[in-house]
Structures are given as C-alpha cells and as structure tokens.
Amino acid sequence: MRFQTLAIHRGVYKDSTFNSVTTPIYPSSTFRFDDVGKTKGYDYSRTSNPTRKALEENLAALEGGVSAFAVATGMAAITAALHLFKSGDHIVCTHDCYGGTERLLRTYGELFGLQTTYVDMSQLEQVKAALRPNTKALWIETPSNPLLNIIDIHALSEITHNHSALAIVDNTFLSPYNQRPFELGADLIVHSTTKYLNGHSDVVGGAIVVKDKTLAERLQFLVNALGQGASPFDCWLVLRGIKTLAPRMKAHEKNARAVAEFLEGHPRVAKVYYPGLKSHPHHELARRQQYGFGGMVSFEARGGIEQVNQVLRSVKIFSLAESLGGVESLISHPVTMTHASMTPARREKAGINERVIRLSVGLEDVADLIEDLEQSLTSKAEGL
Ligand SMILES: *Cc1c(COP(=O)(O)O)cnc(C)c1O
Question: Which domain holds residue 224?
C-alpha cells in the first residue's frame, strides 16, 4: 500500500460487533481476564490499550518502522528516548533544537550526569570533532526550529554507526509525509503528534518510532514503567487527523511557498527562511532528502524590536500563539515564546535573534494570509 492508503487504513480495526468502519475508543482502564493468566491481549491501559495500539500500528507503518509508542506529549516521547541512556553517557545535539529538548537535556545533565555537546550539525566536521568515546547518540532535528536549517540525516547516520551510537531524529516539522528518516539510516524517530500528525490544534501528544526489535522492547518497558502512554481519546483524535495528513501537507506546502515568496520580495523583510526557496542555503539537500518542504516559514523583519512587536500585534488572521502544524495559521516570536527557556548565549550561538518571526502557515485561503501579512508589515511603517 502507498502512503495515503496506509494513512487511512493501517491500524484501523474493523469492529466485528457493529461493523463500524473506524476504530472505537476504548476508555477502559482495565480488561477482564478470560481465565487465570489468559487475556485478549490487554490487561491494563497504562501498559497497552486497543485505541492506542491502532494509532501505534498506523505510525509505525507511515515511518516504515517495526513499532511505535503513542505517549502523552512530544516531550514525553523525548523523555522516553533519553531514558535509553545512563549517567556519564554523551549526546551530541543540534544547536538549534526545540527549546524544550534543550531544557530537558540541561535538567538531565544536572540530575543524572548525562553529557551534551551542541554543534551546528550542518557542519559535518563539527559533529565528528564533538564525538567522544562515551558518545551514545546524535540528536538530530531537521528542519530545525525556528531557522529551518537542514541536516544531512544520511551522512550523520553513517558517522553515528561508525561510532556505535544511535541516530535519533525529531521528525515533527515535516511529518512522515515529507520525510522518512529510517530510509536515510536513522535508528529512532520522535514526534510531537500535537503538530502536523494531528493537525487540528486540539490534542497534545507524542510518539516514538523504532525499526529494531530490541529497542522496541526497551521502549515498551520504559513507556509502561514511566507511565507515559497517551489516552485512548487523544489517540483516536490523532488517528483521525492522520487520515488527511497527505492532502493537508500538500496544501500547507502550497500556502507556505506562496507566503515565503511574498515575504522574500517585501521591502520590510530582511531575510526569509524557507527550505523550498532557491535562496535557502540548504535547498539542494532539502530536495534530496525530503519529499516536500513543509509549512513552516520564518523571517526577519527589518528594524528593531518595536517593528517586530508591531507585526506580531497587528496580524488579524494569524494568531499569536506557540505550536504549529494546525489548519489555522499561527505567528510566533521564538525569543520570547518557544525559545525563551534557552539560555541567551545558546540562542545567540544558534543565530536566533529577536527579529526572527516564525509562521505556521495554515490552510486558509492564501490570498487572505498574504493580505494579512502585508497590512501587518506596513502598519509598522505608519505606527512608528
Ligand atoms: C512541539 C515540539 C516538541 C514538543 O512536543 P509537545 O507535544 O509540545 O510536548 C518537540 N519537538 C519539536 C520539534 C516540536 O515542535
């Protein structure tokens, strides 16, 4: 089956009691045993639940893995992945990773002695130079947030495997529709399903996907032991969202490209970050390793923080909000919002300055989105 068919059919149990065509929600904390020691496959919903299982089978199929684990949030997925390591282990992480990832790595450094080095992963030499005998993983996020730098997953996976470490990819920004890291050599994928996979801004959720049975067993143990599993209601919503993942991703990209091109030609915009533009420094790599360019666009407004605030305040269709990947367009200011927990020094090193504005381009009529940006960019000129 091809991607869109898998998205609609994989993991969807045809209910034999009433012949519903969708997976029922099973909000049962516990399951009755048929006999002593004999279940129908489920005993307690922290360990496993039929609705959660349906989503997990779907996600594993879309990424081309053997197993997936649906957990309560993207951060829960990252937490589970970090529990594969122990005190004294070393992780090399991309320097412009999700702010929450950096915060968790810092916390685990303080609590458990997990060591992290941040490098610009688009520079392979920097990655190689950062490897130590105790390096156990590379933490890759591509495209990065919010500057949409592209990292060569295939090249980094080779480096990692020569070092007997794991290549871990946070695939939230593109979703498996636009990027499939296992095909490029990655070992483990994490997702915030809150974003494109669910796609309707009405759930927080996460997932871990693996292609190796041993890792699957360790993660099944961890997700149960840490108590991370997602609720059956949330799993059902994410599964429902995934059925339209392919057409949504195509439409997000179409709108994002139009917005990026509009911004690139605008006199009040200093710089546009969109991997689909020829001007993007990693455009060729993005074409090679991705199936599409996604729906996220970042840009730097000209002028100072007043001008930036004016844009953020005067948009009418874009909501000033964190998160991304929903049908409604959002605008955010990384320095004061998503990346506020990052230390200023690390932010500066990653090139995230206060003029950067991030857009999650939704599925509204793109002419309305462009008009909204036009009026917000020019209101800046009149207001000051
Ligand atoms: C949102 C996000 C996360 C965290 O996911 P939550 O569902 O908010 O916990 C992790 N990584 C990336 C790239 C994200 O965008």
Answer: 3-242
